[in-house]
Write the structure tokens for this entry.
Amino acid sequence: MFRYVHTNIIANDPDKLIAFYKEVFQCKSIGEERDLKGQWLDRLTGLHNVHITGEHLLLPGYGEDHPTLEIFSYDAIRESVTGEVNRPGIAHLAFEVDDVETTLELMIRAGGSQVGELVTADYPNNTEAVFVYARDPEGNIIELQSWRQKA
């Protein structure tokens, strides 16, 4: 069996980031809070005396228990490097929304910021898409997208 389970974000302020994803993207608590430590976790992470806390949030639009956005924090966090859209590795999370402009405004009011310009692009079959890149309060890049038939 194969199935996608979760994406993990390490947060400086997990409570603030959890609240942001609940408010802006309607992610939901599903009772999967974590307070993890022990030799098994040290072996898994390759770190010594590691302690992780956080929560799994149900992503909107799918099942009742998966996939989730896992927002964790370590007791000891390394200096972060601001993500860029062209940096190797996982570049962004994408959410399809009803209204990109309204969601972007909500993101900014909740502590996020805009990266580039909001654009509209033509696609086949008389379809257009609206896109914008933005950042959550900790700098993680999020793509907002909306698809519609041209009038």
